[in-house]
TrEMBL record:
Pfam families: adh_short (PF00106). This is SDR family oxidoreductase. It comes from the Bacteria. The keyword Membrane does not apply. Belongs to the short-chain dehydrogenases/reductases (SDR) family. Keywords: Oxidoreductase. The keyword Calcium does not apply. The lineage of its organism: Bacteria, Pseudomonadati, Bacteroidota, Cytophagia, Cytophagales. InterPro entries: NAD(P)-bd_dom_sf, Sc_DH/Rdtase_CS, SDR_fam. It comes from Aquirufa echingensis. NCBIfam families: PRK06181.1.
Amino acid sequence: MDFKNKIVWITGASSGIGEALANEFASKGSNLVLSARREAELQRVARSCEVHGVSVLVLPFDMVETAVHAQQVEAVLKTYGRIDVLVLNAGVSQRSFVLDTQFDVYRRLFEINFFSIVHLVQQVIPVFQKQHAGVFVPIASVAGRISTPRRAAYGASKHALIGFFDSVRAELHEYGIQVSTILPGYIRTEISLHAMNEHGEKYGKMDPNQAKGLDPAVAASKIVAAVAVGKNEFFVGGALERFGLIVKQIAPQIMPWMLRKIRNT
């Protein structure tokens, strides 16, 4: 796929992987729709993207407010007339043990990481079907394959996301619709700072592995390249996470022992 003049809508675009993807798609000549809750940050990202000579629509909203999803889709169509790529990057992580975590935190994580995405996708599917083209790019996680201690709800929500989009890919293939599910490992973002603790408050600490993670710009370049060639699923991250995925696939009996070793990280 050539992304020049394509309409790329990115949720969670105000920072981290979303911001890096916005700049990468802009460098490829894509016109953008940038969504997140923080309008000022979206405007900042938009300015950095506009230097590439592309059009940017800033469309701030909270993903969990599903009542506005149809309205946002209409706003994009009114501006550009189509949607070519929808990057579903909005989400939140977790740092808390299963027993300590208030039940409401589980619900909130799923509302953000899963249910809000399902609802927006339902609004966009008819657009893609009418166009007989379109690409969904859900940003899942290695945690959706290997759920580590203190990420139970996060890993479960990402596992659900992977499963959901496996079905979407199969159901919509006849319409020429692509699903490229992305599995990031440790990317150098502030995801752990904004993660929920057992009370649903901000964790507020930078994980050591996160701090040493892959540069978001490098990750974004790899992700866009994977989407361009139609990858169904794509891992992006470091050697540690890749090793974990290989072990999970070829020697799954070792994985429980490995996870016990990282219980307190």
